[in-house]
Amino acid sequence: MFSRLSSSLLHQCTRNQSHLQITRFAYQAAVRPPLLMTSSFGASADARSGKTIHTAGCVIIGDEVLGGKTVDTNSGYFAKYCFSLGIDLKRIEVIADDEAEIIEATRRMSANYDLVVTSGGIGPTHDDITYPSIAKGFGLTLKLHEEAFARMKRLSRPHHSQLNFSWDVPSPTLTAKLRMVELPTDESRGLEAQALFVDDQLWVPISVVNENIFILPGVPRLFEQLLRGLKPLLLPRLADPEGRGVYRVMVSTPLAESSIAPFLTELAKKVEYRGVKVGSYPQWNSKTNTVTLVGKDRPFMESLLPELEKGIQGKRVLVEGNEDPDAKK
Questions:
Q1: How far is CA 109 from CA 28, 56, 68, in A?
Q2: What is the mean pLDDT of each run of 10 residues along the chain (329 residues)?
Q3: Which structural domain range is residue 279 located in?
Q4: H helices, E strands: number in the chain
Q5: Which of 15, 33, 40, 181 is at a distance of 20 to 30 A from 163, taking alpha carbons?
Q6: Cβ neighbours around 156 below 10 Å, total
Q7: Where do the MoaB/Mog domain residues begin and end (predicted)?
Q8: How far is it, in rounded angstroms, from Cα 200 to Cα 305?
Q9: How far apart are CA 97 and CA 59, in angstroms?
Q10: Are residues 229 and 273 in the same domain?
Q11: Which pTM value belongs to this model?
């Protein structure tokens, strides 16, 4: 459809130069996605700047994850990261290296959550389309980030199969490398907030779009290292700037989940007003089950422990994964 429209518009330009500006505008509107509208996709970047972070979402991007070739560990790491900082992680999605999927997921999550992290799809190959897709989805341009390129040249080393590679000579290899430093750019905003360098040992930037989408690589070591480096920048924006996070109390019980369900139902109703969640998790290779209290009001949760232990005939677990050894036989 776009190709027919493009041909028609260009034909009009040739026939009538006086309508050139109108035609050019119509052509751009047809082939360029609309800018992010506040009414449809949430607050603008200006409105998000400095906003307190309460909620988060995570988008894992990659055909290799969906195809079973790669096991995703980044979402688990990010979940623990959010828990430790007191951020309420609301959603994790795994999507394909597909432009429409990336645009839809990042737009939706940017509108719904305070912090959005993406993982994957920012390498040098043809299927690494995260940067261009997000740029298109938010009406941004892809622009070579000079500082990122300079850091790449200084800190990266050529692959052993690329001994003749030169940063100064145009080549397919150089073009491929440049894909990793051509970032979504909002020309109306300062560049310093759109690409964060959080680790002096890494040239890889964290590209920031719409003030709340943080685009990270899929390589677990890099993903984790960059998140650790990002933490000091997030702390001032947390509800608790000390980053004390969420607290978890675990109690192991030898009783079946069906036996303790009535008690837990009543307990959950009683503590909900204090922001405490009650959970129950079976231990398949053990004779025990684990009940958890999760929340930020540590003294209140500690006060519930005697009642919980009595109600489910259980014992507290101080280290996650260590059930009551007396129940294992």
A1: 27, 8, 25
A2: 40 40 34 39 60 96 94 96 96 98 98 98 95 98 96 90 90 95 94 95 96 97 98 94 88 94 96 95 86 94 96 91 50
A3: 247-327
A4: 13, 12
A5: 181
A6: 14
A7: 57-237
A8: 45
A9: 11
A10: no
A11: 0.79
